Amino acid sequence: MRAGRRAGPARARGAGRGARSHGPGTLAWQRAGGRVRLPSVRRVRVELTHGGHPDRPVRGHGQPGADRRHRGGRCTRRRLARRGLAGRAGGPERACGRGGRGAAGPRRGRRAGAGGHRTAGARFRGRALARALRGGLPGGPPAPPGRQGGVTRLATDLLAAALALVAYTYIGYPGLLLLLQVVRPRRRAAPLAEWPNVSITIPVYNEASTIGLTLERVLATDYPPDRRQVLVVSDASTDGTDGIVSGFAGRGVELLRLPQRSGKTAAENAARALLIGDIIINMDASIHIPPQALKPLIAAFADPTVGVASGRDVSVARAGVAANRGESRYVGYEMWVRDLESRVDGIVGASGCFYAARAALHMELVPQALSRDFAAAAIAREHGYRALSVKDAVCFVPRTNSLRREYRRKVRTMVRGMETLYYKRHLLNPARYGLFSWMLFSHKLCRWLVPWALLAATAASAVIAVAVPGAWWLGALVVLGLGIAAGGWLWATRGKAPALFELAAFGAAGNVAALHAWVRVLRGELHSMWEPTRRDPAGDTLTQPRTGEASS
């Protein structure tokens, strides 16, 4: 076959002359020492027409029964090199065809069917051949400027999708909540006729340094003492916590000690049988609640549609301690989003430090591997209630002194949260739960998918920076961002760092913790054991939150 013969020296020289006669889009890129070596045209055509099997026979010139109507579609390497793959009217498709007419039309003076008029099949194979030689074969010419290859297009699409997910999670979702709160009317409930009985549970594990001060603050609240029960659940503490709690027995504080460590959720489940209040309040031993914090939290239940009321976390620093301000800014952002959710339909998860629930909802058993504060909002929605964030029910949460300690806490919290979401995955059905399903997906699942999106964006940026001329700045941005995050981490571990570095370090630590949590969940490693984050007691040495660092 003419299309299958190997190119000799004469053909190579002719091809070289043809390559030099055209612009930068021709085969000049293959020329070396004035000689051109083209890929086998026959092999390319066989692969295109026979599914990648070059050993199959091709019906063509010189074979019995060949369809002579396709003679006009046969190409030789010499004609292909002479006309080039680009740089003239008609594009690379004109390189194929009898007499050089290609896709432009039949050669005049020849009988149709004798090769003069190309059939649709021949024209298609000619275009496919040109596209393959233009950039689809190993060793073939690169894609011309302005026409990206398949890998580059994939990287661009991946980068766009990853950045879209990140932007939606942190900007688009709150923006949509802002729009929805305008069109949805606010509910205004009548005030409570009388204060209901409440039970306050405080699960502890080796909290000897904080439990005494916490109990003093709880007893100093302005809630009626005759309508208040305080129960401390010790998860087999070994540091003298039980003795300190026993010293408050004369002031109405009860103690329940578990014989062996079971975890925070198990401790809260064990306390259910001893609770007598209509409203159950759960709080941590390391937080600071002001005297007026309980009444606003309980007043939210005047609305009969409210099943869970969550306090408002305010992250505060300690005087003389180099704490991370990135945590404070993130907590402020989180509280702002919860306020928006409360005005639209309800929050998707309560604050584990300080929240309250109706007794009927709290009595439902929660598996000990799950997070009860997250599950509380889900349980309320299952029973037709909603959860709210109460702006005036403030609790002050001391910041951790170490990013490593905060990292471990985040991994543990996210693992339990992912397990809880999987356990309550039916709530993601918008046909049944409406806006709550959308908010649950956007607030929780999208947040946990952000680190995967950032990984994909980093990889895609690296590919684009290498493959696309002039896109080096994209790789430089990635390196700069990673450098700021790493610098903030190292800087914060040694002392006070600039706000930008601290925020970047805290965000990077949170996303790496989410990846770590995904790995543990996929490997089946659950966190039923409770390892409370060690925070210094929130005493008088607390400094007031700075403007912009805490929610308002």
- Report how far the terminal alpha carbons are from each other: 82 Å
Number of spatially distinct domains: 2
* Oligomerization: single chain
* Beta-strand percent range: 5-15%
Radius of gyration: 35 Å
Shape type? globular
Strands of the biggest beta sheet: in what spatial order? 3-2-1-4-6-5-7
Number of helices in the DSSP assignment = 17
Element-by-element helix/strand order? HHHHHEHEHEHEHEHEHHEHHHHH
Query: Helical residue percent?
Result: 40-55%
Question: Judging by the overall fold, what is the CATH architecture of the largest domain?
Answer: Alpha-Beta Complex
* DSSP summary, beta strand count: 7
**The first-level CATH class name of the largest domain:** Alpha Beta
At the fold tier of CATH, the topology name of the largest domain is Spore Coat Polysaccharide Biosynthesis Protein SpsA, Chain A
Largest sheet: 7 strands, mixed
Q: Can you identify the CATH superfamily of the largest domain?
A: Spore Coat Polysaccharide Biosynthesis Protein SpsA, Chain A
pLDDT < 50 stretches: 1-75, 85-118, 128-148, 319-323, 537-552
Q: How would you classify the helix and strand content by structural class?
A: alpha/beta
**Mean of residue pLDDT values:** 74
Task: Provide the fold topology.
Blueprint (H helix, E strand, L loop, with lengths): L8 H12 L20 H9 L27 H7 L36 H17 L13 H34 L14 E7 L6 H9 L8 E7 L6 H6 L6 E5 L6 H7 L8 E5 L10 H6 L6 E11 L8 H20 L9 E5 H4 L9 H11 L3 E13 L4 H21 L6 H4 L1 H33 L4 H23 L4 H24 L30
Parallel strand pairs: 1-2, 1-4, 2-3, 5-7
Antiparallel strand pairs: 4-6, 5-6
